[in-house]
Design a protein that fits this description.
This protein is α/β, with parallel strands linked by helices. The chain has helices spanning 2-11, 23-42, 50-54, 80-93, 109-113, 147-159, 176-192, 198-207, 215-222, 224-236, 246-252; strands at 16-19, 57-60, 71-74, 99-102, 122-126, 136-141, 163-166. The longest helix is centred in the N-terminal third of the chain and has 20 residues, at 23-42. The chain binds acetoacetyl-coenzyme A. It comes from Metallosphaera cuprina (strain Ar-4).
């Protein structure tokens, strides 16, 4: 999601430093941002040319470029040790007065904050895929986060054209994924009980709940490995569980959704 968030910040006129572990990944990110910006430009959603927006984004494989940033957003995979390692590095390089945000969808913000020397300046800032189109941003304080940090992050989300939801407390799955989990659980239960097919559940979600995608379709889009991790974290931290094995079986078969060409549906 990192390149999507970088794109959104640049669209809002901000200078962006995009850091990743290899130039291969960064070049792919560049292609995706350019493609997305072209589509937004052609549809009249943005007025500035894709080239002028891309010129605001500097890419690097070194943390050094972060030494002048006002705000850093981490979007590495959902592995606590990896997040802590990245936060440790950012804490060394990013100016002491700047905020460090994590785009995590499940890892407790406090666990990440504890690895830094600025716990009150660490916050959750959770975007949704695809970031250029999805309006919601969840802003999640940890038990250490200062009010000033929360206010700044809410304002920044608005400057990025988003609609922030400010959580009062840090709960697993925040607001959106707790609801998403319930939808997934019930959809999975209905299918496994033979009450309805995947297609029928998805048709109902689209045509009754007015969701832009069906529930299984959305799970494929998010990535079934991501879904299973989310499910696990939210349940481990106290939410009730429903016995459904379809998601886990798909992940074991490496059918992860859109990104592998097959999940509950098949993709060209
Ligand atoms: N950048 C720019 N434009 C894009 C784009 C992108 N990344 N993705 C799609 N578009 C454009 C398409 O080109 C298309 O433009 P035209 O109408 O000119 O052809 C337009 O947007 C609509 O796209 P599609 O026709 O492909 O399909 P759609 O109408 O279904 O829209 C969608 C696609 C916006 C993804 C929509 O299906 C949607 O909102 N789905 C739900 C997404 C969602 O819930 N995301 C959250 C997932 S959870 C998460 O991310 C976080 C977590 O914690 C797991």
């Amino acid at each position: 999601m990192g390149h999507g968030i970088a794109e959104v910040a640049a669209i809002s006129g901000m200078e962006v430093k995009l850091i990743d572990v290899s130039w291969d990944i960064l070049n792919r990110a560049k292609e995706r941002m350019t493609d997305s910006l072209k589509r937004l430009y052609e549809r009249g959603v943005i007025k500035d040319s894709p080239d002028s927006i891309m010129s605001l984004i500097e890419m690097s494989v070194s943390y050094d470029v972060a030494k002048s940033v006002d705000f850093a957003i981490e979007a590495v995979p959902e592995i606590l040790d990896l997040k802590r390692k990245v936060f440790n590095e950012l804490d060394k390089v990013v100016p002491k007065e700047s905020i460090l945000a994590t785009n995590t969808s499940s890892i407790p913000i406090s666990d990440v904050a504890e690895t830094t020397s600025r716990k009150q300046k660490v916050i959750g800032m959770h975007f949704f895929n695809p970031p250029p189109l999805m309006k919601l941003v969840e802003v999640i304080p940890s038990k250490y986060t200062s009010e000033e940090t929360v206010d700044f992050t809410v304002d920044l989300s608005k400057k990025m054209g988003k609609t922030p939801v400010r959580l009062r407390v840090e709960v697993p799955g925040f607001v959106s994924n707790r609801i998403f989990l319930r939808l997934l659980q019930e959809a999975c239960r209905e299918v496994e009980a033979g009450e309805a097919t995947i297609e029928e559940v998805d048709s109902t979600a689209r045509n009754k709940l007015n969701l832009p995608m069906g529930i299984f379709e959305l799970a494929d889009y998010v990535g079934l490995d991501v879904v299973v991790d989310l499910w696990k974290v939210i349940v481990e931290r106290g939410a009730s569980d429903v016995k459904c094995s379809s998601f886990k079986r798909k992940v074991e078969a490496k059918e992860l959704g859109v990104k592998t060409g097959k999940g509950f549906y098949t993709y060209p």
